[in-house]
Structure formats: structure tokens, C-alpha cells
Amino acid sequence: MTPYRFAAVPAAAAALALVAVAPASASPASLRPLPCHASMSNAHPADYTTTKVRVRTADHARVVTVAHYKTTNHKKVRHANGHGRATVPYYISGATPGYTVQVTVTVTRGHRSGSCSTSFTPHS
Q1: 3-state secondary structure at position 7
Q2: Distance in angstroms between the alpha carbons of the first and the last residue of the chain
Q3: Which of 8, 61, 74, 111 has the most CB atoms in a 10 Å sphere around its CB?
């Protein structure tokens, strides 16, 4: 029986070695989030002016912003330039003065995504 016992040990060791050497597949859940940073050009714009959402992320990422006004949401889509910068203008018409408008930002490139937010408060 000794030959069988020795034959089993190298086979088991080889199987363990193959498992240990096999590369782990990168699932979307294990990918690092895409960097995202957002700020406003003017956080307190007057009615009937334009303020801009400034986004920093990965180069050529898709940038989706959604401004959550008191009575509506306004979505815009842009692409970051080769330096990872995007500027998304929002014209402030008759927005509710004093109501803080949250702006959510989602960035995607390939299988990676990230998110961030900023806000502005219109005044009359």
C-alpha cells in the first residue's frame, strides 16, 4: 500500500499548487471606485445666472450630474477631457431662493464607477 499513499500525496500537493497559482478573477465588485470630486463655480448663484459643476475624475470618463431642485430633477451628461476634468453648466432661472439644491455626480469608465456630490443655494 505504500506506493498508493506516496502517489496520492504528490497529486494532492500539485492540486494545491495549482489552486494557489491560479489568478483571481477581477469581478466588478472588487474593482476600486473611480475617483470623483465635485465642486461648484458659485455655491450661491443669483436667479437667472449660470453656475457650473466642476468635476475631477479619470480621463475620458462619462460624467452624469443630476441637480435635485425642490420641484424637479435636472440631469446632464458630459465626458471628462484627457485630464479628467468636466464642467457642467446649470442655468438658474426661477429656482426657489434659499433651497439648497443637491447635485449628485456619477462617473463611469469601463467597468469602474464612482460617485460624489456638491450643492448650491440660489438666492434672488
Answers
A1: helix
A2: 92
A3: 61
The answer to whether 114 and 70 have CB atoms below 8 angstroms apart is no
C-beta separation of 101 from 69 below 8 A = yes
Full set of structural domains in the chain with CATH: 32-120 (2.60.40.10)
Residue type, 102: Q
Q: pLDDT digit string (tens) for 51-106?
A: 999 999 999 999 999 999 999 999 999 999 999 999 999 999 888 999 999 999 99
**Position 13 pLDDT exceeds 70:** no
Nearest to 79 by CA among 38, 113, 110, 108: 108
CB burial class (10 A; 0-12, 13-18, 19+) of residue 96? middle
Is 13 or 100 the better-scoring residue by pLDDT? 100
pTM, two decimal places: 0.75
Per the structure block, which three cell numbers stand in for 121? 443655494
